[in-house]
Design a protein that fits this description.
- The protein is α+β, with helices and mostly antiparallel strands and about 230 residues long.
- It folds into 2 domains: about 130 residues, NADH Oxidase; about 80 residues, 3-Layer(aba) Sandwich (NADH Oxidase), CATH 3.40.109.30.
- Helix content is about 35%, strand content about 20%.
- It has a 4-stranded antiparallel sheet with strand order 1-2-4-3. A 3-stranded mixed sheet has the order 5-6-7.
- It is globular.
Length: about 230
């Protein structure tokens, strides 16, 4: 499965089978987490066989069931922390999809269980990601059009439109899709693209933007452009 295949196949899953992750899968995930932590300057941590974080009132309200494994996504407090969390966290989510796992980004519907994670000085938890074998593969949701979130047209490069199409498949908080992409032309022989977050009373737009930017890079081809 390619990453683009994973983007097309992956949907948020809130109900999980009572199946433990195999030692091989755990080892592969932990290697990837270590790699992404280095690249993104994050402190993501895999927690296994721990059901308490998703047994509270908020989790039940969010319709979570059977979540025994999850990733605590943390990092040093910084202005760009949420965007890095989205960008590198989505790397991990799509990698998990390629391993046959299901996931769900979780902003509020979890409880912090003492002893299940570590925070270094100056770090904060940004979100959790539920992970495991889903009861279903999830379902797609209504998405915006390319024209609603970009300036793609007959005169913009085809790769730009493909990038926007991939970004529109990105998970966002309550499916709000408060992001946009603008092709701004060329400079020094490189195509430039601007990515922007919109306003939302719900929040999480910076994290959503990080997720969408990674999707855009996969769809457009990272070598075709630079972020402006």
């Amino acid at each position: 499965m390619t990453i683009l295949d994973a983007i097309k196949a992956r949907h948020s899953v809130r109900a999980y089978k009572d199946l433990p992750l195999t030692k091989e899968v755990v080892s592969t995930l932990e290697e990837k987490i270590a790699e992404l932590n280095r690249e993104g300057n994050l402190h993501m941590q895999l927690v296994l066989n721990e059901p308490k974080a998703f047994q509270g009132t908020l989790a039940k309200y969010g319709k979570f069931r059977g979540v025994n494994n999850y990733i605590v996504v943390a990092g040093q407090k910084a202005a760009n922390l949420d965007e890095r969390v989205g960008y590198y966290g989505e790397h991990l989510v799509l990698f998990a999809q390629s391993l046959g796992l299901n996931t769900c980004w979780v902003g509020l519907s979890y409880s912090k269980v003492p002893g299940t994670y570590m925070l270094d000085e100056g770090e904060k938890i940004a979100c959790y990601i539920a992970i495991g074998y889903g009861e279903t593969q999830g379902v797609g949701h209504k998405i915006k059009t390319v024209n609603q979130v970009s300036n793609a047209s007959d005169i913009t490069p085809l790769w730009f439109k493909k990038g926007v199409e991939a970004a529109l498949l990105a998970p966002t908080a309550v499916n709000q899709q408060k992001f946009s992409f603008e092709y701004v032309g060329m400079k020094n022989g490189r195509h430039l693209v601007v990515a922007k977050k919109g306003f939302s009373m719900i929040g999480y737009t910076q994290m959503d933007l990080g997720i969408a930017k990674y999707h855009f890079e996969v769809g457009a081809g990272k070598d075709n452009f630079e972020w402006a």
